[in-house]
Amino acid sequence: MAVPKRRTSKARKRKRRSHMSRTAPPVAPCSQCGTARPTHVVCPNCGFYMGRTLVEADDE
């Protein structure tokens, strides 16, 4: 069975894992109300998506 000859150093291990870091999801302004929202998601503020209102906003 193959066994590593030397222990993997912290630097080598961390260099290999450097691309695994999480990135923030892309955010775009809503074309209707202008609030920041995730892309390809109905606006939580006004319910607008793809040129039409899908969810009615609650006015409380």
Folded structure, characterized:
The protein is of the alpha+beta class and 60 residues long. The chain has a domain at 26-53. Helices cover 12% and strands 17% of the residues. The chain is built from one helix and four strands, in the order αββββ. The chain has one helix spanning 10-16, and strands at residues 27-29, 36-38, 48-49, 52-53. The chain has a two-stranded antiparallel ribbon with strand order 1-2. A two-stranded antiparallel ribbon has the order 3-4. Strand 1 (27-29) and strand 2 (36-38) form a beta hairpin. The longest helix is centred in the first third of the chain and has 7 residues, at 10-16. It is rod-shaped, with a radius of gyration of 23 Å. The chain starts with 9 loop residues before the first helix and ends in a 7-residue tail after the last strand. The model has no long low-confidence stretch (mean pLDDT 87).
Give me the secondary-structure topology.
Elements: H1 10-16, E1 27-29, E2 36-38, E3 48-49, E4 52-53
Antiparallel strand pairs: 1-2, 3-4
For the biggest sheet, the summary is:
2 strands, antiparallel
Briefly note the structural class of the backbone: alpha+beta
* Element string (H = helix, E = strand): HEEEE
Q: Number of helical runs?
A: 1
Instruction: Indicate the percent of residues in helices.
Output: 10-25%
Strand order of the largest sheet: 1-2
* Percentage of residues in strands: 15-25%
Unreliably modeled segments: none
Distance between the termini: 68 Å
Give the integer mean of the pLDDT values: 87
- Alpha-carbon Rg, integer: 23 Å
Overall morphology: rod-shaped
Number of strands: 4
